[in-house]
Amino acid sequence: MTTSPESEHPIKAYGYAARDTSGLLSPLTFSRRATGEKDVRFKVLYCGICHSDLHVVKNEWGFTKYPITPGHEIVGVVTEVGSKVEKFKIGDKVGVGCLVGSCRSCQGCVTDYEQYCPKNVATYGTPSYDGTQTYGGYSDHMVADEHFVLRWPENLPLDAGAPLLCAGITTYSPLRYFGLDKPGTKVGVVGLGGLGHVAVKMAKAFGAEVTVFSTTPAKEKEAIEGLKADHFINSKDEHQMQAARGTLDGIIDTVSGNHPIAPLLNALTPHGKLVLVGLPEKPLDVSAFSLIMGRKTLAGSSIGGLKETQEMLDFAAKHGITADIEIIPIDYVNTAMERLVKSDVRYRFVIDVANSIKAEKHPIKAYGYAARDTSGLLSPLTFSRRATGEKDVRFKVLYCGICHSDLHVVKNEWGFTKYPITPGHEIVGVVTEVGSKVENFKIGDKVGVGCLVGSCRSCQSCASDYEQYCDKQVQTYGFTNFDGTQTYGGYSDHMVSDEHFVLRWPENLPLDSGAPLLCAGITTYSPLKYFGLDKPGTKVGVVGLGGLGHVAVKMAKAFGAEVTVFSTSPAKEKEAIEGLKADHFVNSKDELQMQAARGTLDGIIDTVSANHPIAPLLNALTPHGKLVLVGAPEKPLEVAAFSLIMGRKLVAGSNIGGIKETQEMLDFAAKHGITADIELIPIDYVNTAMERLLKSDVRYRFVIDVANSIKAE
Fold first, then answer.
1. Residue from 103, 76, 102 nearest 90 by CA
2. 613: containing domain
């Protein structure tokens, strides 16, 4: 009877695995062996993503057995050692690279080249000696015989050092073996990716004069200034390649794509060595003549043995060599793989395993509505939220607005949705629990949460109260939180958030019709303030009279502006003038009306997301006028530089607002009686509401009566 991955060994493990040739990775519970007498068990802290991981999860090399958990650039801290382990103790920092087993008796093994043992056991995806499959480092812990465990140097960073367990030894070993480690040796490195950039660093540390070959001229600055290479050659430039003939003692070729070898052999001096560490798919075209006439060598090299890998780590620590990395959480791994295919990383992804891989869900049960696929249809979902931390505020959700962006996200129209997804970022409710260090809220307070629930709190944007522009911002739903889990929005019975991102609700601001202000309100208030369009008498245009536009009119009027509404729907004129008290209405399809509006406005807030012409709006501005986009049309804008230059006009964008400004906006709205015009609905009407929203069949914002309609099963 076949044994499942979860039951073949006694120790439960948790990781991410691919299950078929799509290569998509998802959580897998499996098992690892008990700690044997010569075994070291360790908690995985970081694991690098190697390009070979991508090949293997998609079975591009033809030997993958699913499910497969990749990862052979693994570092961590020892949690248990066997009774006969001599070199390690609990608490030691360690690494495991590409191998976890070999016969220990063949010629390769006895000469410390275990990588060439015919019975070697790769760290993942190969049968171990007990017949079970090995699982790699995209997992919470590892166990390995101490011979294959590496002591981690004290001053070598764990995260940026992890890729050295493959990229480091793959480049260090051939430099040493082929005698390219002598000061003054002239060494070429082909390719400037995950392997190549480390090869440059290793060769420079040996004292070599390094020449980088790349087909990408844009990499020259990085090669010379960033990595301190001595020369750069565009390998597509025949003149540069001709000038390089006969100049190099050796070349480390890191490129896996098919590429010509002859020009590289020509670049070698007599007795020169071209060493392949990348794996092109097609056979090489090699002229025997080019080897014979200069006694040149074409060779290959695969990683290194355990003794040499330890030497490499100590060498890297001594010379400050690390990989250039981008740290990611485990649930970003599929996106990272997609980017790796496009070479969209500089230069190596490293998974922050310990801080993002979680075997257990959050402890607090929650209930909401979620979309599960690109149909966007929402249905009940039971999920979980974290326990209330010391700086957290937990609140019962009373109302949640439906934003047009919710519609885009549930259908994955912007391309980044991870299902299941619970939308909602216009959330108001009443506090039910606060953490021990919360200072600004107490149980019973009315509160709101808008589009953000996290940011780094230390970058320039955060320090300037513009958290919405923080590179590490965490949005209220569909984003990865700092604990590695996904955020869930306000189409749910309760929320929990750090108090910094919780807003005090003004006493006289209605909860239901005020909820949309947490997106529509701040999206329009912020650019009016930032671009100086908040002064009485300022002439402000508002393009579009929908969920955003009608709030923009109210905000601008409250600032004392003279407001002109632009709309393609003449029927909206009465609502704009009589209902919202705008001063003027322009049918933007009427050329005469648009002509009459030329040069009349100090600024325009453009709320329209559909594709529409920009030139007529720029014409409506006075000199020094500002056209600010808060809607995001799908197609690029057509902007004539002349129309900007001749009036010193500007086109700008604006995205919501920071937490401090959002609180100011709520207080301003309460003072001036500003709310959204809403239609209140129960949660089970949400799919119909989405259909109507698609047709602009709402005046002007749907708000879900969450507390009175969502019921946990």
1. 76
2. 518-672
